[in-house]
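Entry 14. Ran structure prediction on the chain below.
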Amino acid sequence: MSWGLGTNLNNNTTDFNAVSSMEKHNYQLDKKKVRAGEYSQRFELNHGDCGSYSDWDDCTNDRQRIERNFFWNGINQTKWLGFSIYIEDSISDKDLTTSMIQMKVNGWRDSIWMLRQISVSIVLEFNILGSATNNCYVGAAKNFKGKWNDILIKTELSYEGGRKDLGESYTELYLNGKKINECSRRYPVLTKESYDNRPRGNNQEEFNINYGIYNSYISNWLFKNKTKEVDVETWDDVDEVSGKVNSSITNEPFKYDWGIDIPKRIIYFDEMRIGNTKEEVDISANSKAVD
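Output, structure tokens:
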């Protein structure tokens, strides 16, 4: 797949491949909250919004999501992602972890990086596909809410080269024009093994971006905040490919009455671009809207 100079990530160029929730309220083109152009992409997730696809079922794997996806081939390339994000106040500042956008080697559960709200913080979480996670602090969650935030992320998609020289990096993140130095990584963000052994095989596109709203192990939040007692057994979620195990309260959180619902979450994305240079994806350098 050859993109040329860059690709705009909008409702025409991304899809809902491998997505559970898909009702009218889950995804809309919105003309009220717009960073530029005519519309933004509005994502909404409510208690019980889950579903299934192919050989996966979010409802029985302690997850919820509404995401769009973009796939490409790009090993040994440096890609820049630029986008604007608006987070509604409805997203809790504690307990419930909300993931907003992630870059992955296609087929692996773990992401190369994931922008998430964890408790009161927005972080960029790095996970070199099976190794321990490593987070960098992007900012306070309260400072992201109720306004547009412009983000640029650089990712060098290579497992060769070893450690970069001081001042160079495989990743960079800019928030509203300011470089967040803590998010620069001098070591590769994937390994040869993770690339060569990607579960979907070598005949499909190598990388993908998922953006929207994604939550995993939500039964932990429900159990902590419940107002009614529930009789459940701990569930061990085993990744059959990597062998990684995560435990949660139950794999079927919406089967039970907890006396409380997961709060509604709403996020808007706008001006989403992916390209080969910072200038191609920076909203401040582009007069033409993504629309």
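The CA atoms of residues 74 and 126 lie 19 Å apart. Will compare against last week's run tomorrow.
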